[in-house]
Amino acid sequence: MKKTLFFICLFSALFSLRSVAAVPDGVIPFIFDGHLYLQSTLNDTVPVTIIYDTGADFLYLDEDYLKLKNLQNAFGRKGKAKMGGAGNSEPKLIDIFIDPVKIHCGEQEYENQITPIIKLRDILGRHTDGLLGNTHLLKTPLEINFSECCIRQLKEPFSVGLLDNYIKLNARFEDNRIDVKAKLQIDDKNMLEGWFRMDLGCGSTIILTNKTASSLNLTDTPKAYFCTQAGGVGGASDDVTVRAAKFCMVDTLENLVIDYSLNEKGALSFGRPYIGIIGNEIWSLYDIVLDPANSSVWVKRNKNKGTYAQSSVTHMATVDRTDICDGWIVNGLYKGGIAERAGIEIGDIIIAINNRLVKKITWEEQRKGLGLKGETIYTIKKANGKIISYTLFIDKQII
Predict the structure, then answer these.
(1) Per-residue pLDDT of the chain (399 residues; tens, 9 = 90+)
(2) Measuring CA to CA, which residue among 149, 155, 123 is closest to residue 26?
(3) Domain ranges of the chain
(4) Burial class (CB in 10 A: 0-12, 13-18, 19+), 29
(5) Which of 82, 218, 294, 310 has the greatest count of CB atoms below 10 A from its CB?
């Protein structure tokens, strides 16, 4: 499960089947690769692939995207600002574009006033050029259709029948964020009910805040400890993975894998107006209509079976950084998992799996899953440049 859910509709496949001109007005196709990847344009001419993040406000651009495309100075004057995020680090000083940047997405065109430059690919990999938050995309009602891998920008009043078979959630729209009421039962001793943040910028199931987890009796609960060097915009992150008996937002999901945060800082620490966040391994099970003017969230269960009951079998997390190196960087490890026990470390670069160079493994193959099982050989480049092969026996989930 960890941070990387992959079942997607690829842009190239989508647009090879139908031309861009054939896409109806107001429809934005997306790739679903744990996040919603949208094709957009900056300042009328610059193509950009962004993710939609309901946990963010406006437009952010990736530092390496700008460097590799020679766009460091393409969007006007720069300044500096401090920025934190979901990670466990202190706010950092980052570059920002202080001249407006125009972004065209679907039928809408927005002018972003301040554009932060962040290390987004360190978290999500080479296919992420930036992210777009609610300030722009949620100016109109949105249908987020995971069945058809598209977003529709809606107009009010809604067409007759649009909300047929949808269920309205108990929701609130405050401070440019969306929260919904839900119930979570980890076991007979630990049951929660309250507000959860809707976070399409999260590829997991549910992550409870540190404060919420601290209030629970989890001493005897089986758990797996996970550490990552880039768990969010705020930097490194420490989580614990457990199994929960039930989660109910509209229907009931059973035996799901969830996390809780150990972060002392950031969006998953203390003093938050929500129990935790709900990510895309849950949201992708539903087609969704967001109606900001009426503070409404409507959902309809789709045919996606999901992977919410599955935890990691490699016991590590990687990001594809073949844009800047020869492989996939190990971004996170489970304590005591097969990868850590073998000697793999955070920051290692996987250059081959079973003697196949990972830079030749397409994004489509990655999304479908490599189906690794049993004895698997990882060829890895260490920080000192040394090449070492590790053999992992891939079998059991981490929890």
Answers:
(1) 444 433 334 333 333 333 344 567 779 999 999 999 999 999 999 999 999 999 999 999 999 999 999 999 999 999 999 987 656 667 889 999 999 999 999 888 999 999 999 999 999 999 999 999 999 999 999 999 999 999 999 999 999 999 999 999 999 999 999 999 999 999 999 999 999 999 999 999 999 999 999 999 999 999 999 999 876 665 678 999 999 999 999 999 999 999 999 998 888 989 999 999 999 999 999 999 999 999 999 999 999 999 999 999 999 999 999 999 999 999 999 999 999 999 999 999 999 999 999 999 999 999 999 999 999 999 999 999 999 999 999 999 999
(2) 155
(3) 11-153, 167-301, 316-394
(4) buried
(5) 218
Instruction: Decide: 294 and 119 in contact? Cβ < 8 Å.
Output: no
CATH number of 167-301: 2.40.70.10
* Cβ within 8 Å of residue 364, ≥6 positions away: 8, 10, 13
What is the CB neighbour count within 10 angstroms for residue 313?
16
Q: What is the CATH number of domain 11-153?
A: 2.40.70.10
Name the helix (H) or strand (E) containing 67: helix 63-68
Q: State the distance between the two ends of the chain, measured CA to CA, in whole angstroms.
A: 11
Q: Out of 2.40.50.140, 3.40.1130.10, 2.60.40.3500, 2.30.42.10, select the CATH number for domain 316-394.
A: 2.30.42.10
